[in-house]
Amino acid sequence: MDRDNSPSADPATADALAASLPIKVLYVGGALALIASIISAVVPAFVGAWQTQYGIGADQAGYIAATEFFAQVVGAGVFILASRTRSWRQCAVGGLLILIVGNLASAASPHVNALISARAVAGVGGGMLRALGMACLARARSPGLAFALYATAQVAIAAILTALLPTVVVVAGAHAPFIAMAAIGAAAIFSVRLLPTLKAVNAQWDWRNARRPPAAASWAIAALFIYFAGQGALWTFLEPIGKSQFIEHSGITHALTLLNIAGLIGSFGVGALAHRMNPIVALTALLALGLLSVFLLFKAHTSTAFIAASCGFYFAWCASFPFQFTIIARADATGTASAAVPAVDTLGLASGAALEGMCLPHLGVTATGWAWAAGSLIGFSCFVMAARTRHIGVRRCQ
Q: Can you tell me the distance from the alpha carbon of 14 to that of 300, in angstroms, rounded to the nearest whole number?
């Protein structure tokens, strides 16, 4: 093995390897991750469509959506394991084929059990593609900037599709979006030829260290899970929080709509500077903004105040992720930690929402704010530990 590719390479060598991917590979990896992330973002919007089109209850529809998310966690694990012996190109083809099969099966599955199985299959394929995309972006010259561009496209496309979905379902039926997703996946197969045939993820993998991930990577992954668990605990229950403050329904609806604009500004307007800013300093400022926004969220008694507080919370969340991704990418030169990001953040969101759902009947909506604060503060502390362990944030990322 070449010295520069050895696991013992120094941080400077790891940074050089991170910048070695051609731009076309980054585009393809990001596009594949976008396909999978769009699906996971749009699936929750199907809940109402499934109820009206198939007569499925709200609890059953929610379970189908949850199956999609947890299946993506499994898919990310499949990619991490498969990438040790298979090339990115092979993993991409496999993920796309699974995605296509799952969506075609979803289009032909009007019953709950069949739909659950179909979404589980599609979720595995989507998880593989998202993990591959994150592994690609982690090897960009500036992982934070690459992720900011990806996140901006994700929020924009997901917002457009969410707005159009009800009309599409009414005109073409609930099966039409699944067919469209399968067609997009089929078209994407032609782009995988631009991915490397070498086992790029495995290039720096040392089997002797398989059970001993870098300390910085462990801190960073733990930080991401805890942070997203806190976000999920609050994000899932924004509507009940608004109702508890006697905010009009129209005000809550406007807040949920304007969140996308705040997210776009945060992910791109601030995230695009991720390669020029100290990530810890940036996360500190965004944490302070988040704390202020969530405090005002529970003190808002007008629609305007509720909208402003909600947008501030979501802005801080979206703007934080590129800086968090920078720390994760720098913490593990093998790319394994970056590939695990889709599984970790999805699992964190699902876990936070589930735990808070159990606490809500006993503690009320105020508990969501305390859960968010705990997750954000503990997650931030773990990111600081990851940065100090790997000496990230002590200097500007070049």
A: 47
- For residue 180, give both structure tokens: 């469209």
Residue 291: what residue type?
A: L
pTM of the model: 0.72
| φ and ψ at residue 18, rounded to 5 degrees | -65, -25
Alpha carbons 56 and 23: distance in angstroms, whole number: 45
Cα distances from 294 to residues 69, 224, 308, in angstroms, run 26, 19, 10
If you ran DSSP here, which 8-state letter would residue 267 be given? Answer: I
Cα–Cα distance for residue pair 165/173, rounded to 1 Å: 10
Burial of 208 (0-12, 13-18, 19+ CB in 10 A): exposed
Q: Can you list the residues of the chain whose pLDDT is less than 70? A: 1-20, 39-54, 56-63, 162, 198-213, 271, 274-275, 390-398
Rounded CA gap, 280 and 271, in Å?
13
- Supply the pLDDT for residue 241: 86
| Separation of alpha carbons 354 and 179, rounded Å | 31
**In the chain, alpha helices (H):** 11-18, 23-42, 46-54, 58-82, 88-107, 112-138, 143-172, 176-188, 215-235, 238-244, 249-264, 279-297, 303-331, 336-339, 341-363, 366-390
What pLDDT is stored for residue 46 in this prediction? 65
Collapsing DSSP states into helix, strand and coil, what is residue 196?
A: coil
pLDDT, tens digit (0-9, with 9 covering 90-100), for 158-198: 778 767 777 887 788 878 888 999 999 999 999 998 887 76
Q: Tokens for 65, please give them.
A: 């959506």
